[in-house]
Amino acid sequence: MQEPKFNPPYGGAISHVTDPAEHHGYLHMVAWAVEIGSHAEYIKDRCAKAKAAGAPRDALYERSGPCGVGTGEWVRFSGSDTTGHDAARGFVRIEQYVRELVRYQHAVAQYRKWRRTAPPLKTFTVTIMAPITTTVRALDEEDARRTAMAGWAPSPDGTTTARLTGPPGAWVAKFNGTPSVKEVRR
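Above: the chain's sequence. Below: its structure in token form.
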């Protein structure tokens, strides 16, 4: 079983709050906040505040009073006016987001249940064959082959290990076969 992926209809990774411990069941609030571009930390804070205030589960946001202070009155998804075209389209998107969030949470629960009962993971060595071409400056083809292979270590089983340096560290690749070398004239 593969680990489930969250595929919402909108929003970026910086906005998504998928953990029930962080959104406390306020899925519509999460969807609304992602729709308007809020960051995850803000969304978590709003959901925690809604939980502490005993807000209805389909709350979208708390109405603001003077100076942006919350009034304790919650705007609900079920009580919103969707007669306008733009409002209706926005609320359809919120419903889609909530459906995907519910699907994802259910899939994660199934995956975690499966992982608890799944056999332990095994370690495998996988060999990937790939043609590698490199350009080197050399006197002749034999010298070019030696130069290209300088960082490679052949093994008795016919494989070759290359030490490739690069961020963030050193990579080791194994290849079967002999590299082909072509002279490049400039």
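Residues 20-117 form one domain.
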